Amino acid sequence: MLNLIILLITGTTNLTLLFVASHTGSLYVMLLCIVFFSLLNLTIFSLLHEATHGVLFPNPNLNYILGLLAALFFPTSFTLQKVSHLGHHERNRTRVERFDMYEPGENRTLKFLQWYGILTGMYYFLSPLMCIVLLIFPKILSWKILRGTVISRQTSAEAMMAPLHGAVLTNIRMETLFTISIWVIIFSIFDLKFHIVFYCFLLFGLLWSSIQYLTHAFSPLDIRNGAWNLRFPVIFQMILLNYNLHLAHHRNPSLVWYHLGKVIDPQECRPSILQIYARMWKGPIPIHSATEVYSKLIG
After folding, report:
1. Model confidence over 54-98: pLDDT tens digits?
2. Residue ranges of the domains in the chain?
3. DSSP per-residue codes, 193-222
4. In the chain, what is the straight-line distance between the N-terminal and C-terminal CA atoms, in Å?
5. Which residues make beta-bridge pairs with 102?
């Protein structure tokens, strides 16, 4: 019930912020709305994350419905998010999802472009864009560039695209239509200004994209233990609903967010958000340096 209440409050508040930002005559009010929207949208994303694991709400049908509603604020398809995220739990820190390190034979230019694309928010646009492309042109999944190429392997595109067929693909397309329809209605009812809404999602995307790999960067090369329980300022940990306790989550993926703090080992090293974030901007590292960099971060 707590998750339902949080989703209703944050969703309603964010719609209000979009309305105020679109109609205010004050630049300062508009900027404040954009900032608060982006922060609250991180909370909604954390709820979406809970839904992908089936723990947003005990009832599976209601969990799906609430997941659809949370996905509206990304915006994305709930099924696409679920398939991608559960796949991430299977691929974490393996060769196809090791964006912070490069090996001999890998394309370093592509690795660095992908890395700084994550840090600058470009990664955020892939999910909404993929939804639109799959809705309009689903046959793109059969393109050879998405199968067996350096780009498809190194960017993890091949692994992420593999489950997108049959009922999964149909659900993604139907949910994308649903998302578009709801946003058309919202824009019409509230007379929202597109460029203002875009700015709101742009800042959210920048924050979201940075945080996505922040909890994994330079962690051990282990599917289950390759994450961090990062030290965040309390207010941000509240906004993210303990998303920073990511190692605890990967070890206990079916545990609801408000229980994660109970399973943390107090003796375990917890780097700070700034410590990892600053190191991320220095770029990917050669894989032979992984142990050295890890030791410095926990030292």
Report:
1. 999 999 999 999 999 999 999 999 999 999 999 999 999 999 899
2. 2-298
3. -HHHHHHHHHHHHHHHHHHHHHTTTT--S-
4. 41
5. 286
